[in-house]
Amino acid sequence: MNPDRRDRLRDAAIEVLARDGGRGLTHRAVDRAAEVPSGTTKNYFPTRDAVLRAVAERCLEQYLALTDQLAAGPGDREALVALFRSLLENVAGPGRSRLLAVLELQAEATRRPWLSGILDPMASGDFAGFELAQRAAGLPVTPQRAAVVTLALHAAVPHLLTDGPGTLAAAGLDNPDRFVRDLLDTVYPPDATA
């Protein structure tokens, strides 16, 4: 099978899942989104579970590519603020479809536990990667502090995706730079030594 067409179908399936949710993810919908002949998706991914697996694997690939770009890590607190701010801004920008698809996949994983095995490296990778980033910025990191920062960033994602102005303002997410600064100042007060 053609790997380029396979990736085109997987990318189209992400868009369908993000746009139409789990109920809208059908072979026909993916065919239409990928602009391929009817039946193409079914030839590559014969069952709905195969389509879900393909989407989850593609989301994981995209996540790993993004984290590879961030692997160098920030050099100081300001660079960490910029890194986390850019990640939050990515949610409403180029990462929007992937993140919406991941949320849909997480809901599907409650009924299809095998999906959790594919999705788990994304969340667990964030905990490890964000802790390393905090260490690289010279912050007095403990596993608990690092986890609080990661959980706060994760909790921001659905609010940024739904874009409710009242919620964004209440959470401080209407200004991602300020949100990240306040989060880091709360977990790592600038005048604290440890």
Which structural class should the secondary elements be placed in?
mainly alpha
Overall 3D shape: elongated
Low-confidence stretches: none
Tell me roughly what share of residues is in helical segments. over 70%
Mean pLDDT: 93
Give the SSE order as H and E letters: HHHHHHHHHH
Provide a count of the helices. Answer: 10
Reported for the largest beta sheet, the result is: none
Beta strand count: 0
Give an account of the 3D structure.
It is a single chain. The protein is mainly α and 194 residues long. The chain is 77% helix and 0% strand. The chain is built from 10 helices and no strands. The protein has helices at 3-24, 27-34, 40-44, 48-70, 77-92, 96-109, 114-136, 143-162, 165-171, 176-187. The chain starts with a helix and ends in a 7-residue tail after the last helix. The mean pLDDT is 93.
Could you outline the blueprint of secondary structure elements for this entry?
Elements: H1 3-24, H2 27-34, H3 40-44, H4 48-70, H5 77-92, H6 96-109, H7 114-136, H8 143-162, H9 165-171, H10 176-187
Helix pairs in contact: 1-2, 1-4, 1-6, 4-6, 4-7, 5-8, 5-10, 6-7, 7-8, 8-10
Task: Give a short summary of the structure.
This protein has ten helices and no strands. By secondary structure, the protein is mainly α.
Which key terms come to mind for this protein?
194 residues; mainly alpha; 10 helices; elongated
